[in-house]
Amino acid sequence: MGKKIVYKSLGVLLSAAMLCGCGAQGNMGNIGGDAGTSASIIEASTTLASTTDVNVTLFSEDVTEESVNKVKDAWQRLNEVVSLSDVEIGIGPSGKQIKRDGLVNFTEKEISADNFYEVFTDKCTDLAYWKTVGLTEYAFGYTPVNTEDQVKEYLDKREEKTLPLFALYFFEEFSEESDLQMSRDCAYYLTRYALDKYSFNDFSVNDHRGEWLADLGSTGNFRFDEIDELVEAATAVKSQTGATVKCAGNIWDITEVEWLKTVDDVYCLLYEAEEGIQNLCKRIAAESDIYTEESFHKSVQITLTDKGELSTYRDGVIRLLHPITFVHEYIHHTLNYSFKEGWIAEGLAVYYSRDYEEAYVRGHNMFGDSFQKWYEEGIIDDESMAKMEQDGAAEYELTIVDYYQKLREKDKDQNNQYTCYEYANGLTDLSFFGTETRENLKHIKTIRDVYDIAGSMEKMDDLGFDLTYQAAMVITEDLIAKYGLDSLVESSGSFEKDFGMTSDEYIRNYIDNKMYMHFIED
Questions:
Q1: What whole-number distance in Å separates Cα of residue 107 and Cα of residue 121?
Q2: Cα(168)–Cα(266) distance, rounded to whole angstroms?
């Protein structure tokens, strides 16, 4: 479930962002999307054999000679680049796919399509999408629109740190025509460079973009790490509302939303999400004797939205309102506790997503001048102060500033503004918990408030639901420090059985004895 925080005087800073709570590839459209049929229901089966070319098995009596010749021609041309001697080729009924081990089957619908050669290359090889495009262009006589020097100039001016070779760069729905053409030409020249110098087997498993760029004299500083490799290997098919992308086991429904404007935005979303998952898995594995990185990693489906107030997770699907909330919701998918103690579920999600959110806020320049003046320098403008005093929020907000600065001073060598801000909010909430000041602050959203917005819970009286998300994080962190993460993972489902007292008793004791103050004390 998502979270909703931040006093309105921070303006646009973080406020909206903090609401938390496979088909074939690329421009091939719905390749592989037709319903399968077994060989047992085939009306006819005929094999056309030749000692000089490929055998083509026909699974229908009405396959045209034109289709057979087109497939054989494609085989001969691609076979000049990559050995296809072990490939078994079949042509099935026009609307059905034949499923059989070792068989590469085509329908007449695919054969007659404009992108047939890409379809053919895709089915006969196992390559990242851009390599499929480049190999098709290389084998089938592609003529680039742009010269290699023009591609180099385009890349050198590119602001992103990656080459435009992710599958959606080749979708007209996501790229301008000129950019799409640059992606195709980039794929062609890079493939040509690699295949002219190395074998196909080498090309299929290695990446030579660094050599190619150096050979061109490019000044671009492009990143290509293991996560870039995963994103570039993502498959994509067109959907009614956009595209469905399968990346590193996760399925993303990429639709048109206000916060995702370009294909570069999509690439960044996928990269940061996968990086966040990998870092999270490493952290959990380091803290748990139960989980390894592999066992904690679980695939999930993500649907993008710009409707509603919250990102949410339910039944294996994340409904994502903003990228910053992704890891928070992913943790709900992978790490949980008794539903009755929802405050722990949220505490875990906030605690373990903070590194990702810190990196996101910093990487996307979400700290504005108002944040710098207000929190770092303690300078609050007269208008904001007057508004806080009118709302009875001045003491509460000034305490956040005070705690923030103490946390920053304590960890002054770390670049952790966002994390300090989260903890300052949590500590302040605990300091004012149960007071009239806090009860009168309408902008404070508790876990109960957010769950009510999402409509995902019955009314519960447990004290934990009256905490803010950040306050739940603080207590949950201490719970983990005292008992270990595995004490929550292996829970019996009852807080009292797990820890010897009710959660209300635990929280009340924690607050009354100000046990949270160790976060800001030396």
A1: 15
A2: 9
**CA gap 285, 293 in Å, rounded:** 5
Q: How many residues does the chain have?
A: 522
Q: For the purposes of burial, counting CB atoms within 10 Å of the CB of 223, is it exposed (0-12), middle (13-18) or buried (19 or more)?
A: exposed
Residues 6+ apart with CB under 8 A from 307: none
CA–CA separation, 66 and 159 (whole Å): 46
Q: What burial letters (b/e) apply to 408-427, b meaning 16+ CB within 10 Å?
A: beeeeeeebbbbbbbbbbbb
Q: Which residues contact 346 (CB under 8 A, 6 or more apart)?
A: 1, 3, 447, 469, 472, 473
Q: For residues 504 and 462, what is the distance between their CA atoms, to the nearest angstrom?
A: 6
- Return the SS3 of 105: strand
Residue 409 has a pLDDT of: 92
Q: Let me know: does 171 contact 243? Beta carbons within 8 Å.
A: yes
> In sequence order, which ranges of 26-164 are alpha helices (DSSP H)?
65-79, 108-112, 116-124, 129-139, 148-157
Q: Tell me how far apart the alpha carbons of residues 348 and 342 are, in angstroms, rounded to a whole number.
A: 10
Structure tokens, 192: 């040509």
Q: Which residue has the tokens 């509603």?
A: 308
Give me the residue label for tokens 């924690």.
510
**∠ CA 123-129-134 to the nearest 5 degrees?**
90
Distance CA(502)–CA(507), nearest Å, equals 9
Report the C-alpha gap between 515 and 399 in whole angstroms. Answer: 17
DSSP alpha helix (H) spans, 100-233: 108-112, 116-124, 129-139, 148-157, 177-197, 200-205, 209-216, 226-232
pLDDT for 339 equals 75
For residues 39 and 48, give the distance between their C-alpha atoms in angstroms, rounded to a whole number.
17
pLDDT tens-digit map of 275-304:
999 999 999 999 999 999 999 999 999 999
β-sheet with 312-314: strand ranges across? 235-238, 242-247, 250-255, 301-304, 317-320, 312-314
The CA distance from 293 to 286, in Å, is: 9
pLDDT at res. 95: 63
Cβ–Cβ < 8 Å for 36, 103: no
Mean pLDDT of all residues belonging to the chain: 87
